[in-house]
Amino acid sequence: MKKLVYLLVGLLMLSCSKDDDANPGPDPQPVGDTNVQDFMWQAMNLWYFWQGDVADLADDRFGTDAEYSEFLDSEDSPTAFFENRLRFVEDRFSFYSDDYTELTQNLAGISRSNGLEFGLIYDDANGNSQLDDTDPIFGVVRYVVNGSNAATADIGRGEIFVGVDGTMLNGGNYADLLFGENATYTLMMADYNGGDPVVNGKEVTLTKEEGLAENPVYIVKSFEIGADRIGYLMYNGFTNEYDEDLNDAFGSLVADGVTDLVLDLRYNSGGSVNSSRLLSSMIYGRNPNDLYLRQRWNDKIQEAFTRDDPNALDDYFATQTGAGSVINTLNLQRVYILTTGSTASASELVINGLDPYIEVIQIGTTTTGKNEFSLTMVDDPGRPGAPFIYSASRENQIDPENNWAIQPLVGRNENAVGFSDYTAGFAPEIELREDLGNMGVLGDDDEPLLARAIQEITGVSAKRSWQPERPIEAFTHNGMFTPMRNNMVLDKDIQLPPSLLERMPQQ
């Protein structure tokens, strides 16, 4: 076991020797080995947004090494330690992984997946409005990832499945059947049947592939309707590896003379904060003097960052991408954003960040309400200026005996008027649920949500009823069973101020 440490003068002392229900289950740990807990506590004490609200993370919590050692051994596993000792009661989104490689790949848009994106819906058989083990569940296909295994199968948007490998899905088995270790499974498909799905005999076999990379820029197109030139972009994840693709998409919209934009974030559960800044700049304009967001950290980090410069935590609209390309911008005064309950974190940051500057017209249903950002942390306390924050260039400095990572919430982003309180989500100006009986084709001008946005832009009423026959809202979706779930990652160079580092012991 590495040398145990405790706290002095209200600051984290680092070791001298080294560096939601979808959390991982395997948790092997030799008796008496608390390396993982030691790493978790040190990182959370320094960076966690609610550090001051968790008694066991207090700077003066321990007086001796023996007391600290006993605390680390107070739970029988790292998962129990994190959940019972470190997590703040109101924290819905911090999580952990026993494999930092898998986690960092997921954050880069690389995962083990068959490429089928779907939502899950349950029939409340017991009438208590809560999911029970016996409640029947069915899945609705949202879209298929290009180049995936599912893209080669006979399955597409709007199709319904009710079972896996001959077993009907319910509240007690769906997680194991769909998200367990089985690399290959066969879906039992069903007919709509007026909203009460009935097995139709069709089966679809899918195989999860390692290293599937999803380009989040899913659909880009323009419509010329009368005098209006309307752009449509379906963007399914804030993955910074694809920022150039995103900028190229806006380049095509600019070239098409687009004057209104429908931004489809209905299935976008978040990702990179900087990608949200770039996207917002592509919508609003290259305005480096306009504040996009302001970070707010826990008290001790906030004070250290802003002591010498009150504006040290301000981020402005961008003029170029990380690769140096000039931002292609539409310079809009309004934008139409399609949302559902799966719209979260960095997607909501776009809504909040743009709101002080342009009219944001939201169509769909209320978003998740994820207003905190996170950082990936590994057992590398010796990283200069940023202890524990993961860096690919420092993988050889991570404790080789500890593969765990944590993804704690470390701060909130306020917009230019100081607003960040949207834990209840953003409610739409125009409420419209997806329709199980008419999911439509994504990107077609008669797909219900896009058609409603086009009607709002043109003022021309479509020959359709806007009331869904069978309105749906998924209680969860497959993205919630990956390390990337509902994440807003602060992917920028973070350096603790020298005034804080100087008071820490040298490595």
Automatic annotation (TrEMBL):
Recorded protein name is Carboxyl-terminal protease
Source organism superkingdom: Bacteria
Organism of provenance:
Robiginitalea biformata (strain ATCC BAA-864 / DSM 15991 / KCTC 12146 / HTCC2501)
Occurrences of domain Tail specific protease (ranges): 229-374
Instruction: List the molecular function annotations (GO) for this entry.
Output: endopeptidase activity; serine-type peptidase activity
Keyword tags: Signal
- Answer whether the UniProt record assigns the keyword Signal to this protein: yes
One biological process term from GO is: signal transduction
